[in-house]
C-alpha cells in the first residue's frame, strides 16, 4: 500500500516592493520620533532583550515619578470633565437678528396689504403666510430667555463620567484597578516617559476611539475577502497572541478590486484592520504579570514591485493609525521572506533606533523562515505554509494534545520513530516534518506476528526542501507498530518534529 504525499512549491519573490519600503519607513519615522536616543549613546544589539516589567517595584525612580504625575494629571482631567473636546453649544440669536426678523415681518405685511386686490384664494394664502411669520417671530422673541434657562440648567447639572475606560480597563486612577498602571505605562514608554507627551497621546487616542467608534467595531461585519490579508493565529512560546500580515496579497488584481480600489473600500479596509487589532487586544491580559502585547509576523512573499498608490495609501494609513493608537502592543515584529534590499534598508535605519525598538525586529530570508519562527513560536503553532504543522480548521489535534516531540538527526544518520499499536482496529493519525527536509522518508506497519507481512504505508521518498508537513491516518488490522524512518543524507544536521494520537471515530 502506497500513499503519495503532495506539497505546494514555495515560490520566492525577489523583487522589491514600494509598499513595504513605505510601510517600513512610516514605522521607522514614528519609532525614531518617539524613541530616539542621545546621539552619543551607542545602541547594542540584544536578541535576548526582555519586555519591561509592569510591577511598580521594578520601575526606576524617574519612571515611577512619571507614572504618578500622569495619574494625577489624568485624575484631574476626568473629574474636571476636560478629557474630551466639548462640542460648541448652538449659537443664540442676537438682538440684531431678532430686530431683522421683525423688520422682515413688517415688510411682508406691507407687501401683503398692497396685494389686497388679488383673488380670494391668493388672499387666503397671504393671510396664512402672515400668520405663520408672526408666529415664528413671536417664538424667536421668546427664544433667548428659554435658551438662557436651558444653558443655566445644563451648567448646574454637568455630569462627570468616572467610568471612562480603554480596552476594558478603567482609566480613573482612584478606582485602583491594577490594569490602569499597565495601560498608562504603554503610553509613557511610547513617549520616553515624557508625561505631557504621553498624556496628549492618550487624549488623542481616546478622542479617536470615540469618533471612530472602536468600542462597537467588533460587532461589524466585513465579509471574508480580507481574511487572507491578515489574521490572528496561535501564540508564541511566551503566550503572546500572533498576528500574521500578508502584504503581497493586495497586489493581486482581483483582491485589489475587492478591497482597496475605491475610497469607500479603503475606509472599510481601515475599519477591518482596526477590528482585527481589537480582536488581538481581547486576547491579552492587562495585569502586571500578564501578557499584554502581540507578535506580528509580516510575510513579504510575492510582492511584485511598486504597488498601486491606493494599496500604499491604505496600508500606510493603517500602519500609522495602529502606531498612534496602540502603543507598545508589539512584543516582536518578525519579517519573513525578506528580499536582499530590505536588509540594506534596515542597516541604514538601525543606528537611529533604541534598543527597545531594535530588539523587537527580526528578519528572515526565504530559506530561513521556519528556522527563524521556531526561535519564538512552537512548531505546532506555526502554519504549515511556513514549515510548521498547524493547519486551518484543525479538528484532529488541539492544544490539550501537548507539544510535538523534537529529534535532532545528525548528518549521514537514520532516525526511526515507532508508534505502538497494541490493539487491532485502531485508527492512528500523525504529523511529521523535518526543517528544510532534503531527507529520505518512509512509513510502514510492522505486525507483532512475525509470520505476517510488513505493510508499506509510504514508500521511500526524497523529500525536497519546500515539502509541507506530512499528515497520515492509518487503521491497523492487527497488533504491531507503525515505523517512520528518516534518512538524513544531507551534509547538515536536521531537526525533526512529530506527534501522533489515536483518532476518534466520527459519526
Explain how this protein is built.
The protein has 507 residues and is of the alpha+beta class. Helices cover 37% and strands 19% of the residues. The protein is built from twelve helices and 15 strands. The longest helix has 37 residues. It starts with 17 loop residues before the first helix and ends in a 5-residue tail after the last strand. The N terminus is likely disordered.
Note the main attributes of this structure.
about 500 residues, alpha+beta, four-stranded antiparallel β-sheet, about 35% helix, elongated, disordered N terminus
Question: What does the secondary structure layout of this molecule look like, with pairings?
Answer:
Elements: H1 18-35, H2 61-79, H3 95-114, H4 120-156, E1 165-166, E2 169-170, H5 178-190, H6 195-212, E3 230-235, E4 241-246, H7 253-259, H8 263-282, E5 294-299, H9 309-325, E6 330-336, H10 340-349, H11 355-360, E7 361-363, H12 369-373, E8 405-409, E9 414-421, E10 427-434, E11 439-447, E12 455-463, E13 470-475, E14 480-487, E15 494-502
Helix content: 25-40%
**Count of individual helical segments:** 12
In total, the number of strands is 15
- Characterize the main sheet: 5 strands, mixed
Tell me the span between the first and last alpha carbons. 26 Å
| Spatial arrangement of strands, main beta sheet | 3-4-5-6-7
How much strand? 15-25%
C-alpha-based Rg, rounded: 33 Å
Order of helices and strands: HHHHEEHHEEHHEHEHHEHEEEEEEEE
- What form results from the Cα inertia axes? elongated
**Average pLDDT figure:** 82
Residue stretches low in confidence (pLDDT < 50, at least 5 long) are: 1-49, 151-156
Q: Structural class of the secondary structure composition?
A: alpha+beta
Oligomer: single chain
Amino acid at each position: 500500500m502506497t500513499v503519495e504525499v503532495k506539497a505546494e512549491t514555495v515560490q520566492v519573490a525577489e523583487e522589491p516592493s514600494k509598499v513595504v519600503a513605505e510601510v517600513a519607513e512610516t514605522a521607522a519615522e514614528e519609532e525614531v520620533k518617539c524613541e530616539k536616543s542621545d546621539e552619543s549613546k551607542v545602541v547594542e544589539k540584544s536578541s535576548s532583550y526582555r519586555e519591561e516589567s509592569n510591577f511598580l517595584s521594578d520601575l526606576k525612580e524617574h519612571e515611577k515619578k512619571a507614572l504618578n504625575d500622569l495619574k494625577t494629571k489624568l485624575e484631574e482631567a476626568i473629574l474636571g470633565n476636560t478629557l474630551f473636546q466639548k462640542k460648541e453649544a448652538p449659537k443664540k440669536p442676537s438682538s440684531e437678528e431678532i430686530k431683522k426678523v421683525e423688520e422682515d415681518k413688517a415688510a411682508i405685511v406691507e407687501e401683503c396689504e398692497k396685494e389686497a386686490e388679488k383673488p380670494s384664494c391668493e388672499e387666503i394664502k397671504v393671510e396664512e403666510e402672515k400668520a405663520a411669520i408672526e408666529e415664528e417671530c413671536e417664538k424667536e422673541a421668546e427664544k433667548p430667555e428659554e435658551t438662557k434657562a436651558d444653558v443655566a440648567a445644563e451648567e448646574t447639572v454637568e455630569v462627570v463620567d468616572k467610568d471612562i475606560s480603554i480596552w476594558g480597563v478603567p482609566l480613573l486612577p482612584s478606582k485602583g484597578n491594577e490594569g490602569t498602571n499597565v495601560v498608562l505605562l504603554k503610553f509613557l514608554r511610547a513617549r520616553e516617559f515624557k508625561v505631557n507627551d504621553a498624556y496628549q497621546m492618550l487624549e488623542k487616542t481616546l478622542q479617536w476611539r470615540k469618533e471612530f467608534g472602536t468600542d462597537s467595531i467588533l460587532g461589524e461585519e466585513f465579509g471574508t475577502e480580507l481574511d487572507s490579508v491578515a489574521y490572528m493565529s496561535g501564540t508564541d512560546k511566551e503566550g503572546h497572541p500572533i498576528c500574521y500580515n500578508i502584504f503581497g496579497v493586495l497586489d493581486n488584481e482581483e483582491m485589489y478590486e475587492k478591497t482597496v480600489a475605491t475610497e469607500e473600500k479603503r475606509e472599510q479596509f481601515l475599519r477591518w484592520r482596526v477590528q482585527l487589532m481589537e480582536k488581538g487586544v481581547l486576547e491579552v491580559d492587562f495585569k502586571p504579570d500578564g501578557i499584554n502585547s502581540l507578535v506580528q509576523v509580516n510575510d513579504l512573499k510575492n510582492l511584485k514591485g511598486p504597488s498601486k498608490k491606493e494599496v500604499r495609501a491604505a496600508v500606510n494609513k493603517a500602519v500609522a493609525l495602529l502606531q498612534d493608537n496602540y502603543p507598545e502592543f508589539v512584543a516582536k515584529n518578525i519579517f519573513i521572506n525578506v528580499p536582499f534590499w530590505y536588509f540594506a534598508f534596515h542597516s541604514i535605519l538601525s543606528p537611529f533606533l533604541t534598543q527597545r525598538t531594535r530588539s523587537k525586529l527580526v528578519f528572515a530570508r526565504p530559506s530561513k523562515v521556519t528556522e527563524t519562527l521556531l526561535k519564538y513560536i512552537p512548531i505546532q503553532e506555526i502554519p504549515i505554509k511556513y514549515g510548521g504543522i498547524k493547519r486551518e480548521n484543525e479538528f484532529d489535534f488541539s492544544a490539550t494534545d501537548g507539544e510535538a516531540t523534537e529529534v535532532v538527526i545528525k548528518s549521514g544518520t537514520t532516525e526511526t520513530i515507532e508508534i505502538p499499536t497494541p490493539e487491532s482496529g485502531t485508527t492512528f493519525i500523525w504529523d511529521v516534518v523535518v526543517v528544510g527536509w532534503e531527507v529520505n522518508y518512509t512509513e510502514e506497519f510492522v505486525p507483532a506476528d512475525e509470520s505476517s507481512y510488513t505493510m508499506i504505508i509510504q514508500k521511500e521518498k526524497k523529500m525536497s526542501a519546500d515539502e509541507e508537513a506530512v499528515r497520515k491516518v492509518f487503521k491497523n488490522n492487527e497488533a504491531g507498530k507503525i515505523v517512520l524512518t528518516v534518512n538524513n543524507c544531507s551534509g547538515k544536521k536536521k531537526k525533526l518534529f512529530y506527534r501522533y494520537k489515536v483518532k476518534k471515530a466520527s459519526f
